[in-house]
């Protein structure tokens, strides 16, 4: 069993001491301190909400050029926000993550167990993107670290990119444009097609796949899709029972599955064999989903007439040289192919998507940090309660993340029984449970006792007391 995590306070005068496991000497009353003020949730919040603690004590590290919308929301809370444009290599990440309560990343930063083990103060991770495969979600949950993402704010951007790629491949636009850049006029119609009447095969009919389905049908394509779950078809799209059935029928195959052990090399030699001769492959999901040497072989043989890759098995942490990387030994082969579009993971990189993601994830982080609300979390149970207001002084919000084992609620309620519990909610997800209780008429000593007693339970993963 994983031992409970002790949150280590950063240096400095921490008047939010009651939020974390701290010694009594640093404890100050949340009620009498000036730390709760109507200005707490300045961003789109009712002015009468309580500020839960000195928000300026919260340290946030934002990596990978998280959009300004997100930065602004977090800064407006008074949090200390450090912003970096790139991801960080593991050794530097470990140094930085030791100190912070919150980290915001995109798809490049690998938050493995090895890294998270060092994150002694970390309360929450914000993935300012769709994918969460770069985070060890289970390790995070087991250590009381909630993870949030933006499940669909860039779906439309990816779908539009794929539409552009379908036409670009069908008309060999990349090759013609490259030739003109080199000064060559090469007017051809051989093997250039309209997309009207062609069949698009979508693998993974989730947010992106289904959005793409609508756009493709509007341009006269026939849409089929394969998904591991049975899903309602949009428009006149049709679900096919197997991946092979899709590969055999589609003129264009486009991949929109998450990175999982099951999707690693989902498209390899055997799948290219099944595809129609002269068909096209598009991958804007994750680089591991396509076996790159198998794709190179299929393109050289003429089986596949064109491909678009937005994602790669090894992507760099920052902009700059890429195919010189030793890990990408197939880089030269890819660059030498005809009718292949290579883009640097830009599927979700539009102003619209990045702004929306910045707002969505930053707001989820604020709700979690300030209120303990987990709505939208991908790894801990989703629990919500309304915000406390200034009309309700001397309240405390108790948050207890614990192992989902028999008898915990009885013990927690024995601890809370001496107080007036206004409201209590609890939910579980696998072996993790999340309990929130609003307790009224509590004094400084009561809060300390509640914390000490909850901390002493063997089921405890993390205790937080807000207000
Ligand atoms: N290129 C980019 O910039 C970019 C942007 C956004 C998302 N993505 C990637 O695209 C992926 C899909 O995004 P989404 O929002 O549509 O996700 P989603 O979760 O809404 O949909 C994924 C679908 O894939 C299906 N699926 C899972 N495993 C499968 C399998 N083995 N075979 C067939 N279907 C399977 C699921 O049932 C689900 O319907 C994300 O996980 C992310 O990795 C890339
Ligand atoms: O998961 C995602 O949302 C996409 O892969 C985009 O990732 P990015 O934010 O790192 O571009």
From TrEMBL:
UniProt keyword annotation of Amino-acid biosynthesis present: yes
InterPro entries reported for this sequence: ACT-like_dom_sf, ACT_dom, D-2-hydroxyacid_DH, D-isomer_2_OHA_DH_cat_dom, D-isomer_DH_CS, D-isomer_DH_CS1, D-isomer_DH_NAD-bd, NAD(P)-bd_dom_sf
GO biological process: L-serine biosynthetic process
Any one GO molecular function term: phosphoglycerate dehydrogenase activity
Keywords: Amino-acid biosynthesis, NAD, Oxidoreductase, Phosphoprotein, Serine biosynthesis
Superkingdom field: Eukaryota
Domain ACT, residue spans: 397-467
Record flagged with keyword tRNA-binding: no
SUPFAM superfamilies with a match to the protein in the record: ACT-like, Formate/glycerate dehydrogenase catalytic domain-like, NAD(P)-binding Rossmann-fold domains
Pfam families the UniProt entry points to: 2-Hacid_dh (PF00389), 2-Hacid_dh_C (PF02826)
Pathway recorded for this protein: Amino-acid biosynthesis; L-serine biosynthesis; L-serine from 3-phospho-D-glycerate: step 1/3
Catalytic activity, as annotated: (R)-2-hydroxyglutarate + NAD(+) = 2-oxoglutarate + NADH + H(+); (2R)-3-phosphoglycerate + NAD(+) = 3-phosphooxypyruvate + NADH + H(+)
Enzyme Commission number(s): 1.1.1.399, 1.1.1.95
Family: Belongs to the D-isomer specific 2-hydroxyacid dehydrogenase family.
NCBIfam families linked: PRK11790.1 (NF008759)
Entry function: Catalyzes the reversible oxidation of 3-phospho-D-glycerate to 3-phosphonooxypyruvate, the first step of the phosphorylated L-serine biosynthesis pathway. Also catalyzes the reversible oxidation of 2-hydroxyglutarate to 2-oxoglutarate.
Name under which the protein is recorded: 2-oxoglutarate reductase
Lineage: Eukaryota, Fungi, Dikarya, Ascomycota, Pezizomycotina
